[in-house]
Structures are given as C-alpha cells and as structure tokens.
Amino acid sequence: MRIRLIAIDLDGTLLDSHSEVSPANRQALAAARARGVEIAVATGRRWHAARKYIGQLSCPVALISSNGALITSANGEVLYRNFLPRSIALEVLCVTRDFRPYAALLFDRPGRGQIVMQEGAVEEGPLGWYRRNSAEFLELVENLEAPLASDPIQVLFGGPPATVERVAPLIAESAVAAHVHLSWTKYLTRNVSLLDVMTRGCSKGAALARYAEHCGIAPTDVMAIGDNHNDFEMLQFAAVPVLMANRSDGLESNGWPMTLSNDQDGVAAAIESYVLS
Question: Measured on CA atoms in the order 228, 232, 238, 241, is the torsion positive or negative?
Fold first, then answer.
C-alpha cells in the first residue's frame, strides 16, 4: 500500500490547543507533498474561517469545509457544493423552534450574513463564539426564517451538551429526518457540543470519497487523521484511519491506530510512520 492522499481534520488535529499549526506539522505535510502525496484539510469550519490556517502551510492543499458541504482545490476552485435545501432548513427550524437561542444559519456568502442568529440568542451558544471570533460575519435578525431566501450551508446548534443533545431526537422523530444528516462535534471538557444539520448524504467522508475520485485515487491509498465524531465517516472511508491521542470518547472503540496528541505534533508523527518511513 502506498499513501497517495492524506485527509486531515483541523481543530484538535492539525491545530494545537492554541489554534496554531506547529512547525513539525508544516514540515511533515510539505515533505509528503514533495513525494507527490495529495493533501486535503477537512474541517467543520466554514471556508472563510478555515482559509487563514491553510495559508500558514508551505504546500498546496485542498480544503473540505463545513463538514463536507464544500470542496475547493488548492488554487481556490470550487469543485463541489452540497448545501442544505432552503425548504428543508425551514422544516428543521420549525421542528426545533424551542432551541432558537442555540441555533445559527450558515451561508456561503461574503461579509456580514455568513452567520445568522436570532435576536435573544444566548452567549453560551454559538453567539458567544462568533462574537469573539467572527463578529464581522455575524448578523442578528428578528426571525430566523426571514433570511432563508437561498439555501444555507447548514443549520447549526451549539451550547452545553445537556441542552444540544435534546435537539437531535426532535429531528430524528420528525418527517425531516429522511432529508438530513446530523454531524456531532463534542468538546465535553469545555462543556460544548455542536450539532450540524446537513443535507442528506453530506459528510466529511462523502466529500473525501468525491475528492479522491476527482484525483483518481482509490480508497486503499488514502489516510485520514481526526479526533472527533464529525471525522467518523472520513476515518471509516480511508484504508489508513488514524486517531489523535486527544480524540473524543467513543471513537477508540473502532480499533483504529492512534498517534500522538495535537500538542505533541501527532499529525507529523502519523505522516512519518505511514508515509515518509
């Protein structure tokens, strides 16, 4: 087996606990790319939020953003979009009306309005995060249905796990369940869970499969590195799935090999073991 494509999660994987890409990780990626290996960063972040980290790398990489809803090439060309249909987003908002303070609509558009939340949203939900990190893209509206003139990327629910976990059964037990995919990202040590409501069939794994096909690379030649539940389908797709030592609880039950933590250059260690050695 020769690895020809590496897919790497961003937060908790390529980024350390200070949200930085270490020199060792940058060097390992550049060394793999110099050997002809394709690199794809796969993240739950929006394209606009992820691209600043891609710019820190010293080699060209493709970007799978928003948990697989958008694929862009190393030169920024859009290769694939798979957004949540407006009609389905409206149904999701109807079913989850009691959780509006924790809900956000994410759009693929420049400037303010990329992130839309309802007035009265609580700081312990996505509002606090976006005010600190993406205030220039955040718009507050009186009613979340109003901005849905076009398809959003997704509907996001975030906040304390005990609160957000009550959203999933509402969706799963409704008619809209057949049209959506639920993707979890859990940071239990920070008392935060994120639930992304994507269109049916949208995941990091599905996007990675599409990108591998685009590159003419078989799943047997793919390695994936991740740490959280939204990485599950991507790790499942790859012939060589590698978990970070700081992975979320439950993922280790799959028996996948493990590398060092994100603060110990775990990505570099995995690339050294499976690609460069």
Answer: positive
Residues forming beta bridges with residue 240, ordered by sequence position? 223
Residue 80, classed as helix, strand or coil, is strand
Q: How far apart are CA 126 and CA 115, in angstroms?
A: 10
- Tokens at residue 117, please? 């939340």
Q: How does pLDDT run across 188-236, given as a tens digit for each residue?
A: 888 999 999 999 999 999 999 999 999 999 999 999 999 999 999 999 9
What CATH architecture applies to the domain 86-199?
Answer: 2-Layer Sandwich (3.30)
How do residues 90-99 score in pLDDT, each as one tens digit? Answer: 999 999 999 9
CA angle 63, 68, 72 (to 5 degrees): 30
Is-contact 226 13, C-beta < 8 A?
A: yes
For the domain made up of 5-82+202-276, the CATH class stated in words is alpha beta
Token pair 């499976």 is found at: 274
Q: What gap in Å lies between CA 107 and CA 153, rounded to an integer?
A: 5
Phi–psi pair at 71, nearest 5 degrees: -120, 125
- Measure CA 65 to chain center: 6
* Long-range CB contacts for residues 239-242, cutoff 8 Å, separation at least 24: 239/1, 240/1, 240/3, 240/274, 242/270, 242/274
Domain range list for the chain? 5-82+202-276, 86-199
Question: What is the β-pairing status of strands 180-187 and 192-199?
Answer: antiparallel
- Tokens 């759009």 locate to 107
Cα(140)–Cα(163) distance, integer angstroms: 21
